[in-house]
Amino acid sequence: MEMDFDKIKAENNQTDDFSHADFYDVDALLTEEHKLIRSSVRDWVKREISPIIDACCQEAVFPKHIVPQLGEIGCFGPQIPAEYGGGGLDYISYGLAMQELERGDSGIRSTASVQGSLVMHPINVFGSEEQKKKYLPKLASGKMLGSFGLTEPNHGSDPGSMETNFKEDGDHVILNGAKMWISNAPFCDVAVVWAKNESGKVQGLIVERGMEGFSTPTTHKKWSLRASATGELVFDNVRVPKENILPGVVGLKGPLTCLNSARYGISWGAIGAAMDCFHTAVKYAKERHQFGKPIGGFQLQQKKLSEMYTEITKAQLLAWRLGTLMNEGKATPSQISMAKRNNVEIALNIARESRQILGGMGISGDYPIMRHMANLESVITYEGTHDIHLLILGMEITGENAFV
Ligand code: TGC
Ligand code: FAD
Predict the structure, then answer these.
(1) Domain locations along the chain
(2) Tens digit of pLDDT for each residue in 219-254?
(3) Averaged pLDDT for residues 338-350
(4) C-alpha angle 54/228/319, rounded to 5°?
(5) Which pLDDT tens digit goes with each residue over 87-97?
(6) Which ligand is nearest to the CA of 225?
(7) Which one of 83, 383, 396, 400 is the catalytic residue?
């Protein structure tokens, strides 16, 4: 479905007056550059996303015109070296950019997470010099959109059992299989696909749109992340040149390394969604009167708001500290699991509580809360489910593997 975004913007009479919660002065831990990045992404979200996002979600339309804009504002691979078109910035900058995008909508943050952490990151870390030069600048600028294929119809939490595979054929390989629930798939120009070689070892391949036998059907009927395009990646004897194989990694640690970066971004992104719900709920609680006074004057509403404020503050501190560990190259996968798991859970709880504060209005598209709530049901599932991250932590604590 085509939408007239200029018309939707012109007809939108709501003002986005978002400002972020910062009870413990986390801003004092940020540099001027961090704050500049945050405010430039926030301004863009207010201008380009807030006026159209409800319409996009209501109609389940991915606003693909924003892809080059996301490149322009530096949201594709802020942490990728500048020589390949990335921002050359630190992980706190990356986190703040994801926070602001997800404040707008989790689906918009998803587009950027996949591009930066799951497509550009593996090419940067595991790709050849030729692959980096060929793909990274175009991905950074949004001239190309990428997707990341790990999950399969029969293997989600357990990607090591994947069935997608490739066989040697001269200077090509022949790729067969299917990936499911893939963000950006329907519009992607390239896909970083994880498949097993003839020895059963996982390797990454860059598959380009137009290769014969490669198709990307759209996934319909989603009640969550409706402004993000989700689809399948189907490979029917696709001949992929060997030069498209990522030479720098063999094994499941390849895709899982990429997930570290994306999960970290989500730990910040979820705070953005939580802040937006909190901001909306506080404003509403002050303005809405029942029984002759603002509902914010009732203890039950104050309890909800006080607990939200506390959880946002704790989540901010967790994400900030994790960001400094990422910058030092010291963050462990289980530390990342804790932040992703905690921050998405608190965001979802805050969305649910905020929705109640708005009463019936909480389910309306005139407010962002129900949209965030529905989106966060995907965020708590993708990049490792809530329970998988708990088991990763359980193994860290006990040394015992409870997955199998
Ligand atoms: P296991 O035997 O534990 O590990 C296999 C190899 O990988 C290494 N490894 C990691 N390396 C780097 N980072 C990590 N986080 C790593 N976790 C494990 C490990 O050391 C080992 O290396 P080696 O050298 O010994 O071979 O693997 P397992 O098969 O037992 O599985 C472990 C488990 C369950 C934790 C893992 O597979 C997992 O995380 N499952 C969840 C799957 C998942 O997160 N899928 C996400 C798909 S992508 C997505 O959802 C994108 S949504 C994006 C958006 O729209 O924003
Ligand atoms: P399953 O693995 O079948 O899990 C079902 C339930 O069983 C879960 O509650 C899980 O926690 C639980 N479970 C599984 N194993 C265990 C265990 N050992 N112990 C206890 N409980 C267990 N994937 C990509 O590769 N690329 C993408 O771009 C991408 N984008 C996505 C976008 C959306 C909107 C969604 C919803 C998903 C996306 N995914 C993507 C897939 C996502 O990563 C998977 O859905 C997720 O990893 C879970 O896999 P599954 O859905 O197959 O669930």
Answers:
(1) 19-141, 146-244, 253-398
(2) 999 999 999 999 999 999 999 999 999 999 999 999
(3) 98
(4) 95
(5) 999 999 999 99
(6) 2
(7) 383
Asked if the domains 19-141 and 253-398 are classified in one and the same CATH topology, the answer is no
Closest protein CA for atom 8 of ligand 1 = 253
Specify the CATH architecture of the domain 19-141.
Orthogonal Bundle (1.10)
211-239 burial code (b ≥16 CB/10 A, e <16): beebebeeeeebebbbbbbbbbbbbeebb
For residue 295, the model assigns a pLDDT of 98
**What would the pLDDT profile of 190-213 be if each residue is shown by its tens digit?**
999 999 999 999 999 999 999 999
Q: Tell me how far apart the alpha carbons of residues 273 and 285 are, in angstroms, rounded to a whole number.
A: 18
Topology of the domain comprising 146-244: Butyryl-CoA Dehydrogenase, subunit A; domain 2 (2.40.110)
Q: CATH assignment of 253-398?
A: 1.20.140.10
Ligand 1 mean position, distance from CA 401 (Å): 13
Is 0.90 topped by the overall pTM? yes
Residue 193 CA to ligand 1 centre (angstroms): 15
- What residues line ligand 2, using a CB cutoff of 6 Å? 114, 148-151, 156-157, 181-183, 225, 230, 378, 381-383, 385, 387-388, 391, 403
| CA gap 198, 202 in Å, rounded | 10
Rounded Cα distance between 318 and 263, Å, is: 13
Ligand closest to 106 (CA) is 1
pLDDT at 1 over 80: no
Residues 6 or more apart whose Cβ sits within 8 Å of residue 25: none
